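Milestone 3.1: sequence recovery, worked example.
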C-alpha cells in the first residue's frame, strides 16, 4: 500500500465519524437554501472524485507534477493526517452545534476556544490541509484542479455560514478581527 492509498482511508475515518455523530446535534432552526448547498456539495464531490476515482487517468490530467518518491508520499500523508485530525478535533470541539449544512441551531453557541481560536472555520481548515496532503501524495495535475475546486467549495460555504453567524452573534465581527478565517496567519 502506498502513502496516497492511506490518505483514502483517512478520509473514510472522517466520514464514518461524521455519519456516527450526525444525528446527535441540536435542533435546526434555520438552514441554508438548497441551491447554495448543491453548489458546495457538487464542487466538493467533483474535487474528491478527481483525486480518488480509480480511473486509469491518461492525458494532461495525469501529468506528474511531483515525483513519486518516498519523501513526497510521506510529506503528503503527514499533511493529510494532520488536516484530518484537526478537522476531527474541531468537529468534536463544536459538539452539538455542528451540522453538515449551514444552519442556526436552537441555543446555538459561538465557539471561540480550542481549534476555533486558531481559525474561525477549523473543520474546513482541516479539510483543506487534508486535501493538500492528498494532492502532494498523488502528485498529478488533476490533484491541483481538485484542490482549487475544494477551496472554492469551502469559501462558498464559509460565506454562507458567516452570514448566519453575523446575523445571530453581535460579537462575531470582533471574533473575525482577531482570528483568521481559514488559514492560520494568512487568511
Amino acid at each position: 500500500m502506498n502513502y496516497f492509498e492511506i490518505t483514502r482511508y483517512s478520509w473514510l475515518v472522517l466520514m464514518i465519524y461524521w455519519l456516527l455523530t450526525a444525528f446527535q446535534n441540536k435542533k435546526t432552526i434555520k438552514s441554508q437554501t438548497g441551491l447554495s448547498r448543491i453548489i458546495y456539495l457538487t464542487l466538493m464531490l467533483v474535487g474528491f472524485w478527481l483525486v480518488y476515482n480509480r480511473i486509469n487517468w491518461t492525458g494532461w490530467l495525469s501529468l506528474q507534477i511531483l515525483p513519486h518518491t518516498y519523501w513526497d508520499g510521506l510529506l503528503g500523508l503527514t499533511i493529510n493526517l494532520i488536516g484530518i485530525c484537526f478537522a476531527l478535533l474541531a468537529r468534536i470541539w463544536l459538539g452539538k452545534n455542528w451540522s453538515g449544512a449551514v444552519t442556526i441551531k436552537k441555543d446555538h453557541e459561538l465557539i471561540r476556544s480550542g481549534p476555533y481560536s486558531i481559525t474561525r472555520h477549523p473543520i474546513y481548515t482541516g479539510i483543506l490541509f487534508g486535501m493538500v496532503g492528498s494532492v502532494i501524495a498523488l502528485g498529478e495535475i488533476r490533484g491541483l484542479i481538485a484542490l482549487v475546486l475544494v477551496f472554492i467549495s469551502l469559501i462558498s460555504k464559509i460565506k454562507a455560514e458567516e452570514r448566519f453567524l453575523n446575523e445571530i452573534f453581535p460579537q462575531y465581527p470582533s471574533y473575525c478581527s482577531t482570528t483568521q478565517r481559514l488559514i492560520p496567519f494568512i487568511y
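Residues 3-178 form a domain with the Four Helix Bundle (Hemerythrin (Met), subunit A) fold (CATH 1.20.120.1630). Residues 35 and 84 are 27 Å apart (CA to CA).
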